[in-house]
Amino acid sequence: MAQELNLLYQRYRSIALAVDTSVLLAGFLDWVEGGIGPRSVIEAPENLRFWIFVTIVLALIGLELWAVGKSRFATSGKIEPTSLFIRLILFVGACLITDLHYSKILFLPILLYCYLGVSRRLSYFMALLGVIVLFWLNAANIGDIRPLPPPLANGSVKTGVPRIGGLVDRSTGSLITLLFTLLLAQAMSQAIQTQQKLTDLLTTLEASHKQLQSYAIRVADLAATEERNRLARDIHDSLGHHLAAINIQLAKASAYRERDPNRAFGAVKHAQQTVQDALKDVRASVSSLRQGGAPFSFQASLNDLIRRLDHSELDLTLNQTGDSSSYSRLKLMTLYRTIQEGLTNVYKHANASQAHISLDFGSQDVRLKLTDNGSGFDVAAWKSRESQQTTHGLIGLQERLSLMGGTLYITSSPQGTTLAVRMPQDHLQASLSTDQSL
User: Fold this and answer.
1) E strand or H helix at 217, and its extent?
2) pLDDT, mean over the chain
């Protein structure tokens, strides 16, 4: 049928239809072979009683086929016994119209229905009532229970054990069946509850899976954005540094072309060397992206950076203390890019004649100071991002240091600029106060 049924009622209906159909088939076979028995509470011709019996059982089957009373299986907490009462009336009619003992089996799905769909306490009461009625029927000698034995020769009647024993013998099977029915109902109820919990859990897992997929997409987008930012910083710090140096050397060669050809030629030569250095960095970056690249050496890279500036008019000095071997590659790379960007800015914008690098690798953090005697710049404007289009390098430095838990401080005046950096050795140190003086 098109109407959707809940799972618990489906299980009950399968059992009820199987029991009702079996009783109907057994009654039909008995009627074909010899009738449904001469005795019944309601006296009527046997054929009429048979067809009434068939009608009653078909009515029970119809109740299940049309799912009458299925809403009682919803957890509404209300007792609505109408459909149960209809089933009980039909069951009693089937028992009164025949003397077939198996017609009493029709009580089992009704008891099951009461337990699952109406009230558990009512089902216990019905089971107890069924036991009482069963004993009464057997004691009253209804059905094919044999009558009391005839009187003895002396006129006494044989009583006691044979009659009580036979009564118990007749009732034991039915009692076991009633108990089994209640246990089956309990097992079905628990199984459906467990299955419902598993279904709810599966639904929750599916929702969580969809949410995780959404998070994965967002993480992928964030990772792609971060990778683009990283590439932008690398291009600016590495290739941008070399291009700035080449531009300055070529401008120097152009200025000294007439006055001092040798000095101009030297500037061009240094520009060519810078081009070679730039190509090396590009190849190293490409190799790093594809295969992980060669191991980064902070000391060698720093010495090479200072060497490339030896030919310039900038008097550069380095004071380094401590051991850098305990710092990770990423932290050392970040420190190197910071020094590189700082020197590029000094070289391009500061008009300085002197610069000094101070490096202190401590057990907890590394401290860097880069000072020059240049003309300085407006730090307040930089902090307010008014010059965002012309300060990509400093913004990139802040991003790099923030990822490593580091801090950046810049002070500037017409007498010079100081760039100060503090970066913890361990990522846990990133939670330290950022306003601590360097």
Assistant:
1) helix 161-234
2) 75
